[in-house]
Amino acid sequence: MSEESRQETTSERTARGRTHGAFRCLNCFERIVPPEKAESYKCPKCGFEWRVSWPSPTIPRIRGPVWETNRRLTDEIMAKEKGQGK
Predict the structure, then answer these.
(1) Are the beta carbons of 72 and 56 closer than 8 angstroms?
(2) What ranges in 7-66 are assigned the alpha helix state H?
């Protein structure tokens, strides 16, 4: 089979579409790029903060939420909704 007629595999398509140095916020799904070696990072869109790990120097991964920040934001949202009669 020639190179021209060879179809790309699913894993090759997936790898081609990946971005390095970024991840999606698990609250609003915005793609965010933390500073290199940051231990936590706050989403600029929704304000939720995430703990970050670095399996390799260019690949950040979310380890979990920063509970204090996210709890405060959730309490503010709930109070606002309660005040509007929802």
Answers:
(1) no
(2) 10-17
Domain positions in the chain: 36-86
Q: Please tell me what DSSP assigns to residue 20.
A: S
Q: Where are the strands (E) in 19-86, listed by range?
A: 23-24, 31-32, 40-42, 49-56, 59-65
- Taking only the tens of pLDDT, the chain with its 86 residues reads 555 668 888 877 777 766 778 999 999 999 999 999 999 999 999 999 999 999 988 899 999 999 998 899 889 999 999 887 65
* 79: enclosing H helix or E strand: helix 67-83
pTM for the full model? 0.66
